[in-house]
Structures
1.
Amino acid sequence: MKIYHFLTVILLVFSFLTACQGQPETSADVKPMLFTELYQGDLSKVDKLTIRNGSTGELRTITDKAKIVQWLQVMKDVRFVPDPNQEPRSGWRYWVSLYEGENKVFELFPNNVNGVYYLTDEKVMASMEELFKTAKKEK
């Protein structure tokens, strides 16, 4: 009987300790940031973008430097505001990756950058939709 009580206490303590770990970040832990604060690399070195449609999985590529610069100009002043709800979620509309040569240097989703969830910004969504429409399809 003592072993039963001992094992029950151990199980309860273990359950309590594991429940207290891994709490998601709160929006109080992160501050609003500009795109240029999230991506701390040199934007002038970005020479390729890829964008994947989350609905279809289709991947498109942009290598035209003028289009890349134009898109980055729109993005550089976007302010990313943390979502008060930092609980993990799934699904995304678009996924953009920035490259320097063949090296992927940064990636973002409209509402998730570096593992932090942000409120969806209509300017970001519109720019990603336009980027996807004008990009070349991957073969």
2.
Amino acid sequence: MIGLPWLEAAGRQLRDQYRQQRLPHGLLIVGGSGLGADRLIQWLEGVLLCQHPDRAPCGQCHSCNLRLAGNHGDLLHLQPEGKGQQIKVGAVRELVSFSQGKAQYGQNQVVLVQQAERLNLAAANALLKVLEEPPAGTYMLLQSADPARLLPTIRSRLQWFRCPAPPVAEGQSWLEGQGVEQAAAELALALADHQPCNALMLATEDFMSRRQRCLELLRGQIERPSPNLEVLTGLLEQEPAQVLSIWRPWLADAARLAQAGTSVPLRNTDQADALQSLVGRYPTAALWLRLYDAVEQLRIQVEADNNLNWQLLLEQFWLSIPREIRRTA
């Protein structure tokens, strides 16, 4: 099966729909890799292309071997051209041409559009025409962790299938089964917003060390505001998205503490004492919300533009922290 216990029932449901000829030819799979959406999709592709439908995906037939080797003529993947990039209309024209052909191996044709929310307007409109009259024998799979960004007309043409999230206890049990210690599993799962596959990537000594350094620097700038930019050298060597993904939930925790007090649950459970100390010193929730909003705006810019000047943006944010503190005082 899929290899992720919280997705096994979902996989069986999709396979049963296919065997009963009830699987829609246009399917929007909602979820990201953190929940294992990529694993579910790979498995479903196997179901749709396997030459032994009664035990698909068998993993042994010629079609399965081609798929597993990444060389299946009846399978087409579309995705953004690069980090922060869009899916352009030329790629969708390739999809249209592909879908008008016939299956080479006697089963179906499968098209997967990954990160479908990144379709630009021209590409989305071109895809819409295909979805309005899906070719027989072709299954159109769209994956998105942010379906609200899709055109409403595309959303309405597809049947939605949401990747289920596991209960916390199941996610933690799975992480421990991957060799993660209990305390580390609890923390990683909280940091990953209870998405186990992402949590597994966070539960490494290397990431936790980098996280600790990022938080120490931010906490230091808030405790002892300084115009010194030399301390940012280490941050400039890290992936911008990762730095922001560390700061964002930490600042959100601080804002929640300022608004609701110590009874509020935190994602950064290991930072409770440090957060409570800082919020005790700066109890105004507006400060923490403004800092959170600034980091969120940075995240949006980083996601949208692969060529931005990360050093300049980081320095501007760093120097804004003392101003925001003075504004609150």
3.
Amino acid sequence: MAGNELLARFRTHAQEHGVAMVEATVDRLELVEGGFRASAGAQAWHAQCVILATGIVDRLPDLADAEAAIACGALRLCAICDAYEARDDDIAVMAAPETALRHARFLRTFSRRVHALDAGGGGWTDPRLLREAADSQVHLHPRPVRLTCTGQGCEAEFADGSRQHFDTLYPVLGAQAQAHLATGLGARTDENGELVVDAHMRTSVPGLYAVGDVVSAINQISVAVGHAAIAATAVHRGLPANWA
């Protein structure tokens, strides 16, 4: 099922239970008496609790049209999610050497033709990484000076003028957690900038919960849905009694 279809079903299900859907971008979250005030321009909402599901923004390589490359499968962002779709392809991973090789070795279970590209520019100089690459038959490449992606895959051009075609490329360049609404209230984050939560998805700010990629390194819909169920249950149990 495509992501857009899944979102549409979620919206329909929520509306069947009287939930009002508002398309807006919250740009400010404040602590006020009785809870929180969320603002989106001139609009504002008050709530006793807030659940953040603001996600991350992946850092992408310098490409003319990265979104189109993702849409056609030339550029992929999650090997755990979709490596099976790239099985037996020429697969490349672009990252700092150790990260690139670690992900490339994972992908070797899906293809015999896996490549690791140095995104840092320091080169493949670590003897341990060279041994691991040889043992797992991962092909090593320097940092590309140019990348182009089309519906047929991606092509890397290197400083010596050589070129290499890949059916698909996984850039592992990190991501930016969209945690600013929470950190503006003093919420704790870890070394990756992701929000620290407890077993009930509560941040360090009372009444503020966070779910999904903004708190988890496993960026999958199933994980986010599980987080949401835990957070919603905790919120419900924590609200004052509202007898029917």
